[in-house]
Amino acid sequence: MDTTHRAGPEPADPSRGADVGLGVPLLVLASGIVATAGAFLGSGVLGGTPIAEAAGGWLGEDSTPLAPASGAFRIWSLIYLGLLAYSVWQVLPNQRRSGRQRALRPWAVAAMLLNAAWIWSVQLGWLNASLLVIAVLLAVLGRILGLLVRTGSEGRVDAVVTDGTFGLYLGWVTIATVANVSAVLGAAGVDGLGLPVPVLASAVLAVAALIGVATAWRSGGRLAPALALAWGLAWIAVGRLDGGLESPGTAVVAAIASAVVLGSAVLIRLTRSRKRPSEIRG
């Protein structure tokens, strides 16, 4: 009798599965192209009206006390570049077997198509509809963050292309939602709900900062969402110091909120990395 021990097959990687084929990955790629094309439309390059001038100009840098200065919108170039990189990368054979990407793809498609829908709603002057769309987009990106935290990145490229891109996207859309709410209220003639405008603006900025701290806590101190949100808050401060709606008090609160968001993410990351260094990713 042959009693020689024979090694069995290597245990399967639970994060890997059968190749999902090209159907859904190509849908993600198409959605990334649609989102990028929408960005060109929103910039005015493809004949559309620049976002700052569309919808009655209510999303311009001097339209409301919570509108970021124009320099803030440079972050969109980085986000769109990341979305395109992700859209191409997730088509690769190794990523078609990734359980993480399988779970993420439907939400990524939703986020990118919602982004295009937001641009179209603004182009058509549907300011109220744009607020609804961006609120849903924010919820989708929150769901994506939860998936990314739960699954963990699958290497450096995944951490940068997937976690980094969607982290920046979430942080920026958070502050964009604040600006969109302010635009809708301004267009509706709401002038502060009986409070001085700087007081109401400061209260909203404090809420945005709390959301940033909560996001950092939930994600274990991920820096990408905090960086994007802090960037937007800092540019609100710039806008209130130089422009048609100067408000030094609002600028100071925005700057403090920016520092709180970024500082809390760094502190949470450092604290948790000392306890569980292998669990802090992205």
Explain briefly what this protein structure is:
This protein has helices at residues 23-43, 75-89, 93-96, 99-123, 127-151, 156-187, 197-219, 223-241, 248-275. The protein is mainly alpha-helical.
Overview of the molecule:
The chain has helices at residues 23-43, 75-89, 93-96, 99-123, 127-151, 156-187, 197-219, 223-241, 248-275. It is mainly α and 282 residues long. Helix 2 packs across helix 6, helix 4 (99-123) packs antiparallel against helix 5 (127-151) and helix 6 packs antiparallel against helix 7. The chain is globular and about 60 Å long. It starts with 22 loop residues before the first helix and ends in a 7-residue tail after the last helix. The relative contact order is 0.12.
| Envelope shape | globular
Give a count of the beta strands, DSSP E runs of length 2 or more: 0
User: H/E series, N to C?
Assistant: HHHHHHHHH
Number of helical stretches of at least 4 residues: 9
Structural class: mainly alpha
- Uncertain runs are 1-14, 277-282
Strand content range: under 5%
Secondary-structure blueprint:
Blueprint: H1 23-43, H2 75-89, H3 93-96, H4 99-123, H5 127-151, H6 156-187, H7 197-219, H8 223-241, H9 248-275
Helix pairs in contact: 1-2, 1-4, 2-6, 4-5, 5-6, 6-7, 6-8, 7-8, 7-9, 8-9
Pick out its properties:
single chain; 282 residues; mainly alpha; 9 helices; disordered C terminus
